[in-house]
Design brief:
DUF397 domain-containing protein, globular, alpha+beta, DUF397, 1 helix
């Protein structure tokens, strides 16, 4: 793996067989988090700031409670 190649991962709550997941990578330089559809990896990705990502994750966690 090249040093600049992003390391994408899925949530530990996702099953290995599931196609309904998003994958995430945290940029090593900068302040961005990138999100993509695990079933359409070549379709591109969405970049958000780390702050925006934190707000989203907290909101989803609160909605699940």
């Amino acid at each position: 793996m090249e040093p600049d190649t992003p390391r994408w991962f899925k949530s530990s709550h996702s099953s290995a067989e599931s196609c309904n997941c998003v994958e995430v990578t945290f940029e090593r330089t900068g302040n961005s988090v990138r999100v993509r559809d695990s079933s359409a990896r070549r379709a591109g990705n969405l970049a958000v700031s780390r702050g925006e990502w934190s707000v989203l994750v907290r909101s989803l966690g609160a909605a699940a409670d």
